[in-house]
Design goal:
With 89 residues, the protein is α+β, with helices and mostly antiparallel strands. The chain contains three helices and six strands; from the N terminus they run αββββαβαβ. The chain has helices at residues 6-16, 44-56, 67-79; strands spanning 18-20, 26-29, 32-35, 38-41, 58-59, 82-84. Strand 3 and strand 4 (38-41) form a beta hairpin. It is globular. The two termini are 14 Å apart.
């Protein structure tokens, strides 16, 4: 299945949220996230948003997602680390 285009993905997550893929693991520390062996450094604002995903394995729908968070979530989606909640199996 082809990934959604960025605009379609962002509309979907603002409505439904996302969750970690079943095989994904995510840790956090001092404005950094470690997801499936990759390190992602983020701003403090983005850290505050993404910590929910690390702690709860899901990111609840939000109409207010900053550009940095949008880019990171889309990259993780394309990599298969997260899925839109309505696509989760």
């Amino acid at each position: 299945m082809e990934p959604l285009a960025p605009c379609a993905f962002l509309q979907q997550i603002k409505k439904n949220g996302v969750q970690l893929g079943l095989k994904s693991r995510m840790l956090s520390s001092h404005n950094k996230f470690f997801i499936n062996g990759e390190v992602c450094r983020v701003s403090s604002n983005t850290f505050k948003m993404l910590i929910e995903l690390a702690d709860n394995q899901e990111f609840f729908p939000s109409p207010h997602i900053d550009e940095e968070t949008e880019k990171i979530l889309y990259q993780w989606y394309v990599s298969g680390y997260i899925v839109s909640k309505n696509q989760a199996m």
